[in-house]
Amino acid sequence: MIRLRPPGLSSGESILALALAAEVAVFAAVAPQFFTVGNAFEVLRVSVELGLLAVALTPVIVSGGIDLSVGAMMGLAAVVFGAASRAWGLGLGAAAALALAVGTAGGAANAALVSRLGIPPLIVTLGSLSLFRGIAEGLTHAAVNYTNFPPSFLALGQGYLWGVIPAQLPIFAVVAAAYAILLHRSVIGRAVYAIGFSPAGARYAGIPVRRRLGALYLLSGFVASLAAIVYVAHMGQARSDAGTGYELDAITAVVLGGTSVFGGRGTLGGTLLGLLALSVLRNGLQLAALPSELAGVLTGTLLLVTIGLDRVRMTAPARSAAPAMEDVEVRNSQVAVLCAAVIAGSLIVAGTNLWLVRSLASSTSGARTLAAGAEPSPRDTPAPAGHRPVIAMMPKAKGDPYFISCRAGAEEAARDLNVELIWDGPTSLDAARQNELVENWITRKVDAIAVAVENRGGISSVLRKARTRGIKVLTWDADAEPDARDFFVNQATPEGIANTLTDEAARLLGGRGEFAIITGALSAANQNEWIANIRKRLAGKYPGLTLATIRPSDDDRDKAFAETQTILRVYPNVKLVMAISAPAVPGSAEAVRQANRAGDVNVIGLSLPNINKPYVHGGVVQAVILWNTRDLGYLTVLSAAKLVQQAFAAGATSLEAGRLGTIEVRGSEIVLGAPLLMNKTNIDRYDF
Amino acid sequence: MADRRTGSLLAALAAVCALLAIAAPGFFSRENLIDVLLGNVPVLIVALGATLVLLTGEIDISVGSVFAICGVVAGVTALAGAPMAITIVATCAAGALLGALNGALVAYAALPSIVVTLATMVALRDGLRWATQGAWVQDLPDSFQWFGLSQSSYPIVACGIAALLQAALAYGLRHVAAGRAVYATGSDPDAARLAGFDVAGVKAAVFTIAGALTGLAAIVNDVRFNQVPSNAGIGLEMKVIAAVVVGGTAIRGGRGTMTGTLLGVALLAIVGPALVFLGVSAYWERAIQGAIILAAVALDAWRLRRRQPGLSRAAVQPS
Amino acid sequence: MPAPVLLQADSITKSYAGVRALRGVSVDLRAGEVHALVGENGAGKSTLIKIMTGAVAPDAGTIEVAGQRVAHMDPHAARALGIAAIYQQPALFPHLTVAENIALTFESARVWRRIDWASRRRRARDLLASAGASIDPDRDVETLSMPEQQIVEIARAMGADARIVIMDEPTAALTDREVERLFGAIARLRERGAGVVYISHRLEEVFASADRVTVLRDGESLGTWPTASLDRARLIRLMVGRDLSTVFPKRDVAMGDVVLEVRGLSHRPSGVHDVTFGVRRGEILGLGGLVGSGRTELAEVLFGLRPADGGGIRVNGSDVRIASPADAIAHGIGYVPEDRRHHGVVLEMSIVANASLASLPAVARAGMIDHRAERSSASRYVSDLRIKAESVDAPVGSLSGGNQQKVALARWLATRPAVLILDEPTQGVDVGSKAEIHALMGSLAARGLAIVMISSDMPELLGMSDRIAVMRAGTIRSIVPRAEATQDLLLELALG
Predict the structure, then answer these.
(1) Within this chain, do residues C342 and C477 fall inside the same structural domain, yes or no?
(2) What is residue A11's predicted lDDT score, i.e. its pLDDT?
(3) How far is C59 from chain A (nearest CA, A)?
(4) Domain end: C207, C240, C273, which one?
(5) Is residue C249 situated within a structural domain?
(6) For residue C57, is it within any domain?
(7) Taking CB atoms and an 8 Å limit, are B136 and A134 in contact across chains?
């Protein structure tokens, strides 16, 4: 039932509050740094952008609609804001106004299609999701990354008020309060509920249904662009991929908070609870050093259990003509299915708990080692010998085979050197999640952090913070600002990679001809940097080589396959395909092979040996270029351990790196060596 | 009504084809058509299942995750040395099982399908990542690729499967009582219950079938290669729902045809490569596709409004 | 020799969440008879027929069909036993064709059976003809009018070869001529040896068609009587449990100035054209005519749901433009629509929220709702209109039809209207509430409100109206003063 002035929590909300309390209790027990004021504020900071979207979506969903385009609108507004302030010379205020205007205009477009033409909002916003993100990519060629925002602006996303409160929190509080008043106190909010229950009934009561619905979509566009500005301040960069996938997280928070997707029921308080339940879950899992994949599994389970229990407890939904009776009718089967779901969920939770207990046990055994070392020491001084240093290492994306092979080396080093390794990262490329994780590691007081940086501008300030807390910071794979870390483990420079690739292409083509590039996602920063360097190399050294086209693969083998097929037809003169994303190389190779163009068209690329061995041996792929990823992981952990143990420090020119021998150190860069060029003759020597 | 949409779709398809015929006749080469066809057979198979689900007034956004899991299941089964027939059955069974899980929660626990499948989408995707740690299934036996047939006979098999499914489902929906039960359920579940239909059974069945079809699509797709990636199918749900909706199936159920879905898949399948053939930059591709979806549905809604102006019941819509 | 018993319900008891809906009710239905089930709303009629059709299971009691005890009744089994139900709101599939809607009830339940469309069409055409209508079997049901849908329902029941046909207020949305056609169809059902359970609030219909009457009150059966042994007054007394002094309140109201004046009003897309009339303070103007003659459409034009495309509206002597319901409310026009459940109230919302929905600015300051003012206003209407509810926070969906209608009225009274348009104000409302609503209309008029009342209920139209305007084919053909109006005259004007 609609509660006009919620005196307490509804049944769904109290279930959720219980779940939240359980999360807090469990994590407080297993993750020592979880239950602190500082961590509480960090949880809130990382929830702001998502929270803004969830808050804006609440009345939309209460009205019986949905807005899938909010995440994409964040991308578009971020790009517009970045371009306006960094490229078009507008002041920050004017740029922000422009971004907000774009958001409002996008919202207005949704509003017009939904309320004027009466198209289901799911379809409209599914379309505008592509449109907004597409315009953002088109405007920037998906590559431009606006950075170097003034510190006064970045403070909005990274700074603190009175030393503790994240600076963006007041913005969120104001927006949430405004929405709470709008939804629960105002005449408009009442109309929204009426529309959600019964659009026709609302219309017959004289409510301007179209105008009210339109206003909600307009507002959600506006709030999405506001979230984009906060996001830019938080990350220190504006790129077309801002907010990717946020719409589903925001909807999850809203639905978790008890808002009915059929409309009419839901409160803003519920949404805030749902948001917290999501954020605390992620934060707690990271602080407890549990794999972040668990977050998805647990979120899904939590979602099903919460709304399932709510459903069972709701005795009279009064939606259909004879509510009470139908409810009685379906009760038995409902209970059965829900019991099954709850049992399945609790099995998962139980399994996790087992895991928790085990990780707890291992950390206490670590403590025992410390005690056996007979030299108890305060946590924040450099660890003496005998203490097992904790090294936290982050890939750009956990699922990527490239990083998985790095992990093998990292684990090898951790075993050899007897250090504790935490390996965690975003499940897919996500700069915001990287920041979140570093914050959590600082809270957890690890000894060293090593990050493969997705976003140089965004992560540097949080890495600096880690250094001021006495944590050793390394970057690997991709660097941050030099003053934000102690060392960069440099596997190969973008220039080096680009040159090796281009030289190999030129060698295979005999210095003349056309080639095509298959990249990862259009907005992938690494790939875009390589492409820029490839173009430079072409212009400088190989005037005879022409880059015919660049196509995206979105790191999907099947898409790389289809794109290559099309390229082979549209550009018959292309004699070489250069795939610069690990899954794309086998995709392109298979396309060339199936087109019977092997031998005629060469495939080279940046990838891993194992997934390419069949093609290299089959003569389809001429060369796979990569550094030894296993060694990269090994060297990173080794450097971190030596830094912590003070066996290695700034100023050194070389590093004794165990099985890797002596490694050169140039300034603050630890250099792994030149990229590997793997072909038929040597690829079998590598297994990753 | 479905006929009206079929007309506009055919017109749109004809326009794109005409443009291609003038500007890039190479598009119509036999090889290219086969490539486009094979690339979209899996999408079509998933879309056929999604059409069934949408017809009952429900939605399934977990197909991408199910697709990835089924691919891995196919790979692992083949790797274990199972004959191809067993592999196919196991893959479809895995899909059907996951579909049945969605279906049971929607039909018997009466939870909203968008929430259920949102939950399973996230949970299954991350569960798979956890289980595989991103590793691909490799070293598959030779009998895996092309179903153990040859590259030249595979297109016939794949297109045959798709055509058979398309025809069977189109016929079944129109001319078999079970198909009419799907429409009746989506048109008005309460009336369907009163008329003696097992509404929950119908819903559970369409989710299960959709799951099985997703499994079939995964294996039809993956046998084109000799290894199976563990991150397949990301964004597949959006692609499929867009195709089905552009094909004229009502998001609230009760209306839509398999022919419409076929045309919807065809239109979206052609647009992608067509833009490459026409030399459009990849950076604008997504924007153009979004604009095409919006234009298609807006034009349709506008035409509908012009036909029945001022009706009070047509003015507003739930969800 | 009495006709064989088709259906015997014995000692049926049913509770919902602890509340008794039926207590030991027994009813039997014989071949070839029409058996009326009467009682106020909430008396248990709906629950009883839901048990007969297997939509819900009884807590205790048995059902026998043709002498065989039915152990487990569900909609499937009911269909197989030849039981068909026709509800007030047709339970048809809007997206499916007429032919398919008819076919779905009598075709076999085998899932993998092939559909023969040609024979479906043929069969539908035959059945529609025997139900007395010609509707294209290939039309989608959503394009049909309400009476047409009702006919399709009847054709469905005939097609199912139902021996037991249950009709729950089938005439609620029908005009007299359509009712006659329905009675024709019922007669044909009887001739075929079927029994009909007939539920209606229109007692004239009960007396015109039923052989026997069973009266339910508060979940208990008071007994079954041959219709011939009862008169109207006795039947009402049985249903209500008390005497209703007068059916229609006497009113002596001095009429004031013209409040609403309409000249040549048109809305061509819905067929309303050249409507001219006026209503005075204190007057009740009845609006009669067949369903489909444009009465509801005219009301929706006046209320701004269908903005007029010709003619003018004057309120209190000045020209106004009404392009939306908000405009209508601003000019003091209120509208209680015909479809109470979907349009008149929002079932899921509380009495408080429903009562204030059209007059939120009156209980709000600077756009913020003053919850205390809102509650006190709602409480006042609850006591003034004698709305029976546990609390003002109860969802309107939990109230009886009559009380829902009073909430709908309260909503519009709260806007302090000058003109109130009531569309079928007592449709589907039980006898007791009906009298209360009539009394309320009388006192509102006495306080100076101008009322336009659309009604298909002839006694109501004749009893309540000061003047009666009769519509035909989209316009008002004639306005008859109360003194001159008779049932025959109105029917003649309506038919043209």
Answers:
(1) yes
(2) 67
(3) 12
(4) C240
(5) no
(6) yes
(7) no
Helix (H) or strand (E) holding C461: helix C458-464
SS3 category, A90: coil
Q: Shortest CA distance to B274 belongs to which of B41, B10, B27?
A: B27
Residue A146 DSSP one-character state: B
d(CA A141, CA B289): 16
Name the pairing type of β-strands A621-626 and A602-606. Answer: parallel
Name the residue facing A399 among B118, B231, B276 (closest C-beta): B231
pLDDT bucket at C290, cuts 50 / 70 / 90: confident
- A360 and chain B: CB distance < 8 Å anywhere? no
Which residue out of B231, B271, B292 would a mutagenesis test of the A interface target, given it has the greatest number of A Cβ atoms within 10 Å? Answer: B231
What pLDDT does residue B311 have?
Answer: 34
- What is the Cα–Cα distance from C59 to C39, expressed in whole angstroms? 22
Residue whose token pair is 């030393």: A163
Residue A676 has pLDDT above 80, yes or no: yes
Residue A125 reports pLDDT greater than 50: yes
Q: Count CB atoms within 10 A of the CB of residue B139.
A: 12
Residues A605 and A498: their CA atoms lie apart, in Å, by 10
Q: From C208, C238, C214, select the one nearest C226 (Cα to Cα).
A: C214
Note whether C279 and C331 are same-domain residues: yes
Which residues have CB under 8 Å from C72's CB, separation 6+?
Answer: C57
Provide CB contacts within 8 A for A491, sequence distance 6+. Answer: A476, A477, A627, A629, A632, A672, A675
Q: Do A294 and B282 touch (CB under 8 A)?
A: no
At A351, phi and psi to the nearest 5?
-60, -45
Query: What pLDDT, in 10s, does the model give residues C325-371?
Result: 999 999 999 999 988 888 999 999 999 999 999 999 889 988 899 99
The two structure tokens encoding residue B38? 């094979």
Contacts of A200 in chain C (CB under 8 A): 342-343
Same domain assignment for residues A259 and A160: yes
3 state DSSP class of C472: strand
Do B204 and B100 contact (CB within 8 A), yes or no? Answer: yes
pLDDT at B132 over 70: yes
Q: Give a yes or no: residue A678 inside a domain.
A: no
pLDDT band at C473 (very low <50, low <70, confident <90, very high): confident
The answer to whether the beta carbons of residues B203 and B103 sit under 8 Å apart is yes
Residue A343 placed within a domain: yes
Nearest to B285 by CA among B266, B269, B271: B271
Is the Cβ of B29 closer than 8 Å to some Cβ of chain A? yes
Please judge whether C348 and A207 are an interchain contact, meaning their C-beta atoms are less than 8 angstroms apart: no
Establish how many alpha carbons lie within 13 A of residue B63's alpha carbon, considering only the half-sphere containing its beta carbon: 32
CATH ID of B2-303, from 3.30.310, 3.30.1450, 1.10.3470, 1.10.10 = 1.10.3470
What is the chain B residue with the closest CA to C306? B310
Predicted ipTM? 0.86
Residue at A279 is within a domain:
yes
Compute the average pLDDT of residues A242-267. Answer: 90
Could you tell me if residue A380 is inside a domain? Answer: no
Alpha helices in B80-198 (DSSP H): 84-107, 113-132, 154-175, 177-187, 189-194
Q: Where are the beta strands (DSSP E) in C180-299?
A: 195-199, 212-217, 220-226, 258-267, 272-280, 284-288
Q: CA C32 to CA C29: how far, in whole Å?
A: 9
Q: Which two tokens stand for residue C141?
A: 């049901």
> C302 and C262 in contact (C-beta within 8 Å)?
yes
The two three-digit tokens of residue B183, written as one number: 């429409």
Mutating which of A115, A117, A130 best tests the B interface, going by the most B Cβ atoms within 10 A? A130
Number of other residues whose CB lies within 10 A of the CB of residue A480: 23
- Subunit partners of chain C (3 or more CB pairs within 8 A): A, B
Domain boundaries, given as residue ranges, for chain B = 2-303
- Which is more confidently placed, A542 or A627? A542
Place of tokens 């609403």: C260
Tell me, yes or no, if A121 comes closer than 8 A to chain B by beta carbon. Answer: yes
